[in-house]
UniProtKB/TrEMBL annotation, chain A:
UniProt keyword annotation of Metal-binding present: yes
Organism of this sequence: Kitasatospora phosalacinea
Protein's recorded name: 4Fe-4S dicluster domain-containing protein
CDD domains noted in UniProt: DMSOR_beta_like
InterPro entries tied to this protein: 4Fe4S_Fe-S-bd, 4Fe4S_Fe_S_CS, ET_IronSulfur_Cluster-Binding
TrEMBL record, chain B:
A GO biological process held by the record: respiratory electron transport chain
Any one GO CC term of the record: membrane
Protein's UniProt keywords contain Iron: yes
Gene3D superfamilies: 2.40.40.20, 3.40.50.740, ADC-like domains, Dimethylsulfoxide Reductase, domain 2
Key words, A-Z: 4Fe-4S, Iron, Iron-sulfur, Metal-binding
Species per Swiss-Prot/TrEMBL record: Kitasatospora phosalacinea
One function term, GO molecular function aspect: metal ion binding
Domain of life: Bacteria
Full protein name: Assimilatory nitrate reductase catalytic subunit
Region (Disordered), start-end ranges: 368-389, 726-766
Gene name linked to the record: nasC
TrEMBL record, chain C:
Stretch list, region Disordered: 1-20
InterPro entries in UniProt: NarG-like_sf (IPR036197)
Skewed-composition ranges (Pro residues): 1-10
Originating species: Kitasatospora phosalacinea
Protein name: Uncharacterized protein
Domain of life of the source: Bacteria
Protein keywords: Membrane, Transmembrane, Transmembrane helix
Ranges annotated as spanning the membrane: 39-59, 65-86, 144-164, 193-218, 239-260, 266-284
Lineage: Bacteria, Bacillati, Actinomycetota, Actinomycetes, Kitasatosporales
Amino acid sequence: MLGRTIFIDPGRCIGCQACVSACRECDSHRGKSMIHLDYPDEGHTVASLPTVCMHCEDPVAPCAEVCPAEAILITADGVVQEADPTRCIGCANCVNACPFGVPKIDLEAKLQMKCNLCYDRTSYGLAPMCATVCPTGALFYGTVEELQAERPGVDVSTMFAFGDTVVSTGVAMVVPGERRTPVPGGMLNLIEVNGRPTPGNGARA
Amino acid sequence: MSHEHVPLDPSVAPLGTRNFRDAGGLPAAAWRADQTEQTLVPTHCCFCGVQCGMYLRVNAQGKVFGVEPRNHDINRMRLCPKGINAYQQVNHPDRLTAPLMRRSRDEPFREVGWEEALDFTVAEINRIQAESGRDAFGMLGGASLFSEKTYLVGKFARVALKTRHVDYNGRLCMVSAAGANKLAFGIDRAGNPFSDILQTQCLLIAGSNVGECFPVMTQYVWGARDRGATLIVVDPRETAVARTADIHVALKSGTDSAFFNAVLHVIVEEGLTDEVFLAEHTTGWAEVKAAVKAYPPSRAAEICGVPAEQIVQVARVFGTADRAMAWHARGIEHHTQGVENCLTVINLCTATGNLGRPGAGYGTITGQGNGQGGREHGQKSDLLPGGRSINDPVHRRQVAAIWGIEESELPQAGTSMMEMVWQMQRGEIRGLIGVCNNPFVSLPNYAVVKDGYDKLEFHAQFDFFLSETAANAHVVFPVTTWAEDEGVMANAEARVVKHNKAQEPPEGVRTDTWVMCEIARRLGQGSKFAFEGSKDVFDELRRASAGTVIDYYGITYERLEETGGIAWPCPSLDHPGTPRLFEGGRTSHPDGKVHMQVVEWHPPADPYSDEYPMTLTTGRTVAHFLSGNQTRRLGGLVEQTPRPWVEVHPSHGFRNGEPVRVVTRRGSEVLPALVTEAIRPDHVFVPYHWPYPVAANVLTVDALDPRSKIPEYKVCAVRIERAEAIDPVPAPPVPPGREAYPEAQVSRTDPLPPTSPQGRGTAERG
Amino acid sequence: MAGTAPPPQGRPIGDSQVEGGAPGVVASTTRTTAVRASLIAGAASVLLVVAIVLGSRLLRDFDSALVPYAVATVFLTFGVVYRYVVWVSAPAARRMFVQGWKAALSWENLKRSPAALPKMIATYLGFQKFLGARSHARWAAHQLIFWGCLLAAAITFPLTWGWFTFTSASAAGPGYEMRLWGLRLFGFDSGSFLGWALYHGLDLAAVMVIGGAGYFLWRRMRDRAATTGQRFGYDFLPLLALITISVTGLLLTFSEMFLHGGGYEFLAILHMASVVLTLVYLPFGKFFHIVQRPAAVGMQLFKYTARRKGSDDQELQACKRCGQPIDTVAAVDNLRATMRDLKLGFDEWAEYCPRCKRVLRGTAYLSNVKRGFK
Ligand code: HEM
Ligand code: SF4
Ligand code: SF4
Ligand code: SF4
């Protein structure tokens, strides 16, 4: 099934943002960082979550489907590319349709940009910048077998539940060995975690 | 209805998706990635003691323009955000490119030629030493210098300046561990290489925010856990490594020795000691055993503010593991009993027989890139090259012979960095040369430091950016960055690694080596400083260290380039180096034993009172390094963490981002609150990378450990109050007529604290 | 990554649209769309032929040497219209198309902000200000290509269709007159500046295009941002085509002026071949953006007018969790409808900003999957 791809394990992430700086060094979009690093448990713990494009496979790239300008192309190896600069009209449909919250958009340049798995590197067999530098292996590039050889007992999931819809992806997340259900994509009406109200970070007072 | 508020363009998009302000960094044009020729120069990161390997990308014009991960076996391509952004310093617009000079602090700096700056400096040295004696002129070095340069700082002070007053900023960093190591083992370095961590069953990390301060070392910590190790973290804050640890001991700052004594107490009680090891390889165990008897978990629980059961649990997990390891850093070292804290950890490892084996051992994690190498070769007030003592007549004779001077000419031991500042206040030290340090940010009790430096009649500083300290000097010499010269550093494992020169220095910039040699020549000591470059210095250093505990003789540039690093001692050219110490239980003391030391806990120096009821602890954040003179100028890092904050527990009723006045007996400042449950309710935390008026060290106490003279950064008494407005973060200093590179400073004025201590999430401020 | 039925590399434009969802449905819609598109495109082509015949006064003004060019424009029309119809039939483009035209044609809007549409056309289509935000050089180069091509098309298309004619006013003199559809527009002197400009207009256009396309070509070899994933057919061919057309065109002038027509015939054929191929290729590759870009104006006008209706509080969609604005309410509604068309069952998520989506997912992972290391 899965070939060489990124495996994300937020549990190991230390939130250092090396990936954010490294992404900026990637030659295909030098100076601009595409990866997201959030601190979802703000106020409670220092937990952190890196987000790269999941390269959705089924449905194939919702971002591309909602693009009115046919700007987002998918290469034969399943990599969902960033918007073609000649076509993108900067409408932000992709930004708001992506269930994982991935694409960025430069409103002045009328151009969407997003993680393309460091296509300039991966197409030559190098690992993407973020997964190369990640000091913790929270972002790991390789095959499932390579991952499991280093981390006995872990499994991976490419299924994410958004309400009743399950999105399957080309990039995987690490899950405990026994887990079989899709990873929740988020619970819109989640009000408590571990008996605490969910963090209202950034909420307008 | 007319809605003129609506511009034709741009339209709206969600926060964090709509622009790329985080590009920051270099002049925008330099970010374009042209497909021109590039050369990859293998080197290491200039920042922390992990010393990650990296390649610098050099373009066809010979300029450093980027970084590429390098598969060096220390870091296996990993880098932290500091390392990734490090290259941007090299051709940064804020670089100093001409000497700055003024005759009095009332005047502004003016750019002058090298001749004028050197002449003035030498004249001032001669004047002050003639008027007030040789020791009235001091020298302060730094541990981010290559080892060659640290060697040169020591030699320059003693041979050219002929002063006893030389010390360095490692005094603020490592010296407690160094003192403890010397006492217990007779050798000052970590006992095991990082790779040993992968084989341990129980890893204890005390007072180290590994995830932020030594990020790339985390791979070893996680690697050990992947292989089944239990992780114990001792830290008042729930840091990134503490968050997921199997046991997190959130003790009160300043109570480490009580905690470790109690752990040892339980280990003794439960019969988990390694009596065979103790009998064969130690002295002083009976005394230590008797002393820890007085620390039952119930007592320690009270002192440390942790449950007694947790102490028992730690003791059992650590004591029953076949291979256990303890690593510590500044958290237990920055105390008036820093040396003793380290000794309690050493006692714990020794009593359980966890020394000198793969997966079993003890280490301290050096903070600065050359924190290890910087303390080895004589820039410390009481040490000579090869870790020799300046008080030992034999050692003095050896070094005098190598340097070609009379033993009687060699000055006696000087004083520590903080003590030197007190001496400046008293007028005992009237002139100073500082190299590679920024005490205005990094020394405790800013008011005292400022006063001391202000009293200097003459002050010269070497740096490549104008630091806050340099901005207060009379002369500033523009010197090279690490990428413009070659040299070696020793990382936290005492592995010596080679940094290579990636580009020529900018016009007008000289190496520290050249400047020191040139001043020495003008002081009439040229013949003893006839060094062409680092390699010459290194060859002298090798010879000077031959036969000592810290033996570099077998290490050459060629060998380092071939091997990727050699751990000292390495006495001969065919010696493979010594990655692991204490194999077979042998230490470097003449009797080969571990000298265990009795430790009694005592409270921190700054007493609590009704006025100052809480504990202030200080430390680092992942995006910045030490005094921030380098990292506060790099756009990506400023973007990640633009300003300092005060971390408080929600129980104090502050809301996130509210201005909070932090008051100690030394001073006060207003910072935005980062409200989080990840800190003890009775503690507040302030990171220290920023200058006055938002410097953590405005608040800290200049109390020193009597043995190591390390300041007590990690604990002082504090209170917090509501305030009106936060103190602004000043821009990093630049010479008159220039402006700190604005693109890198965009987010500095953000009034809010970061989302989490590691920084702002990428999508929060537009 | 082995995708589920990954689409082939370097696919022609637009097919990223039809993946996923329910394949059967998509396939049948594609077929009906194709038929409809063919019909409309056929009609448009016929219309053009009629216009040519009428405009050239029943082929009296038609220059038979230009027949291949004229035929190419007919094919071009067919191709462009066909591609256009297929494109705007896909759910996302259709909805944006409808919204754009609604905004453009609304009397209400026209009354309230009459300047908005012309201003947007000038900035997004004419001067392409947004390109400056990508890089000033790219903006300048594209402006050269754009105005160069526009100038060339304005001169050549009417000529090939026989709409423009130049006739000498008298048998011998330097006086010329220019006629459109047979009607005299103005007369001019061949030695005058206007005469020179008209005569050399194409040369000027060629120089502009060579400058712009040359820069882009250079960039495509040097800038790693441009080279990543670039494809010959999609990225290089258009530039090479433009340069070939312009260079052969210039050489024609050169041959006429300095070589007394040496090699003229060969060059003329080469030039014609490159133009014809480019025109026929235009609807299918990168050049299709010329037809597609006006969508940017429609989109912008749609958002602009939606936002002008009321205060930001009413007209901007606030993230349901953090309250920060996401986009105009109308744009979010339009997107959600698009997502429902496409049977993407998570359109509710569009009411949350991307960061909150990530934070929600992070929180769910922490509480449901794995809190920490194990
Ligand atoms: C309707 C007006 C037009 C608009 C709004 C427009 C817009 C664009 C945009 C946004 C790009 C991407 C540029 C970049 O990001 O570097 C582009 C590229 C390009 N345009 Fe246009 N364009 C228009 C008309 C034309 C015309 C008339 C031509 C001439 C045939 C043309 C030829 C090109 C070419 C060759 C490129 C590719 C450059 C490359 O290699 O990257 N465009 N256009
Ligand atoms: S994660 Fe988002 S951006 Fe990536 S392919 Fe899926 S929908 Fe597109
Ligand atoms: S912003 Fe660009 S890529 Fe995204 S949907 Fe709109 S046109 Fe497509
Ligand atoms: S961990 Fe230390 S040595 Fe490694 S990149 Fe970061 S600062 Fe540099």
